[in-house]
Amino acid sequence: MIRVSQMSYSKIGSAKELVAFREKLAEAEKQYRSRVLICSTGCRALGALELSKAFREGVEAAGLSEEVRVVDVGCHGQCARAPLVLVEPQDFLYGKVNPDDVSEIIETTLRKGEPVARLCETVDGNARTCAESVPFYKNQHRQVFKDCGRVDPKCIEDAIARGTYQAAAKALSSMKPEQVIQEVTDAGLRGRGGAGFPTGVKWGFCQKADGDRKYLICNADEGDPGAFMDRALLEGTPHNVIEGMIIAAYAIGASSGFIYVRAEYPIAVEHIGIALEQARACGLLGRNILGSGFDFDIEVRMGAGAFVCGEESALIASLEGQRGMPRPRPPFPAQKGYLGKPTTINNVETLVNVPVIILEGQAAYADVGTEGSKGTKIFALAGKVNNTGLVEVPMGATLRQIVFEIGDGIPNEREFKAAQMGGPSGGCVPAKFLDLPIDYDSVEDIGAIMGSGGLIVMDEDTCMVDTARFFLEFTQNESCGKCVPCRVGTRHMLDTLTRICSGDGREGDVEELERLAEDVKATALCGLGQTAPNPVLTTIRYFREEYEEHIENKRCPAKVCKGMFEYSIDAEACTGCGLCKKACPVDAVSGEKKNPHEIDQNKCISCGACFSACPVDAVMKV
Amino acid sequence: MTVAQMPSLDFSVAERILDDMGEIEAGALIPLLQKIQDAYGYLPTPVLEEISEKTGIPTSRMYGVISFYSQFYLEPHGRHTIRCCRGTACHVKGSLEVSEAIKRELGIEDGETTEDMKFTFETVACLGTCFLAPVIMIDNDYYGLLNPSKVKSILKKYD
Q1: Which one in A10, A314, B98, B147 has a CA-CA gap of 20 to 30 Å to B136?
Q2: So what's the ipTM on this one?
Q3: Does the reported pTM lie above 0.95?
Q4: Domain topology for B80-156
Q5: Contact B134, B85 (CB under 8 A)
């Protein structure tokens, strides 16, 4: 196999040469009859690196190194079954694999070509061996994620072999910037970072703006708690992000670009850094890219921990070395952005959509999706759902499809209560909208926003008042303090919510929350403040009775808010094992071995340690 | 810790960083501070003053930036940093009880360091590993699917 990293780098001089190089790489890859693809990004948290090492050593020891390639890849998506291993060409998908399983996979799959059924997902008692037969994948439409989990993110040859940079070559060699913008506009691509502004229109503003120098910024400051699709794209397919940036920069006429990435994502920072070096070495960044005469290069900047920097003007201030505070718009970044020059800011997922449009054409792209929202959306599915992970579905898919078909429903036979969409700027969508086709407009109609695609499933054990308080605490914490509505308004709302959750709610609190929420929404300076009330407003709108229960009866129906329920031990169920007694930090539990235990309510601090320690569910919330 | 108690600081590390970065433009302040913090483990005041002398960037401007971003700190961290995720998925799965348990066990609050300099405890917005919720990170290791009763044994592993 030809490895750029092992030979001297040579620049690819034209679109034609890129095609030839791709063919050469594809030919070389044929040497391998099988590839073992191990997620080494997200799955790393559960031992994927040790697993990868075990595979390498096992394959070597079995004498298969010449015909089997072990590859560290990006996220496969079904994080609930981490660590995941995908074996090509059969596409056998193995979950929760540990190093002890490696020899069996080598003998059964790599030697005989048969699946190891016990590592496959079972549906109705039958093992689903291939990825596409697993409901999690069958119901997705993976086009932005198509290369994620299939390429070594540290290897540009893998990316090129799978077709990355072909779209950039096409745009640079055969399209004018205006044509690129038209194509993206006609495709109906809308920003995937939150607000859903049409990407082509945004590019058009910047392209037409006067300026000797223009900038392109990739917003990879994925701050929404519960969203991790941008992380997966940066970690798993950094070259696709770079390709999207090349096309965007060409369209708007930018010669410099930034990737502004969260410092909490060290793997993403590492992979994107390697990818940039390789792209430069291959002539895909720098001067005269692919012989087109177009110059463009990219610099990585790490965020320093401020959620508000996901907002465009705050992000620019941060890049300029200032406190990351937003400023009033207009002027928009397209006219006056980084260092006062015209600047376009696009989100990671948006940029990875761009090559798909250029390569397949706007018509094919626009075939997927709804009237007003084209293409696919990646959701980060988490919370009270069996299949946590990253899912890509066509715009217009329903929550039921995502949560129940792909996500396999709620664990422990609990009931679906709500889905929180759009993070701190979004809202809680109740069960009655399970069959609503989700797109930018429909989600906004019901008070939430698409946001960056965080989708947290909540069941009966989730308190909606506490959820609202949680989000307000987050936005209040992250408020930069520049404008009064956000700084003071969210503070006041949080105080009221905290009071309700502590059992001190008063009549009129809900109405006051509503009034304040509308004021903050209408008057805050930036998106953070304007959307901060959404979680409060949607929970009041759909779960008002829960607020009233807290205020009037001092009762938390979900038994989450401390002080509104007690822990108690069911004497019949208690086996007297003593684990709760051992776990209790304040010696509130008493009882003899093998006899039912009791909790002294005067000492209990409601920490929940006994509840989680009990092996027979004898500790109850009453 | 007062300046007098601090172990003597090696200014040459900061000087090397400044040399490597060349001319420090306004936009380079954050990357510069990140490099200094990587090298020293925190942002020591005498080093900041030294940098101010050399670059002409007023310390007031530096403190403005440092106090805005949560990842800059002016005090040394403990030997191990515990990051407790307070993201949405972790919250609905009980991260609050986990962080309460850690704080109780160590006797410190969010952002504080134990007296023996063993642990610094922080809550963070989201670690992006929602499938492990509730999750904490100690240095570079993840501990997922936690509950309050697991905390003690995890902390015991560190010294």
Answers
A1: A314
A2: 0.89
A3: no
A4: Glutaredoxin (3.40.30)
A5: yes
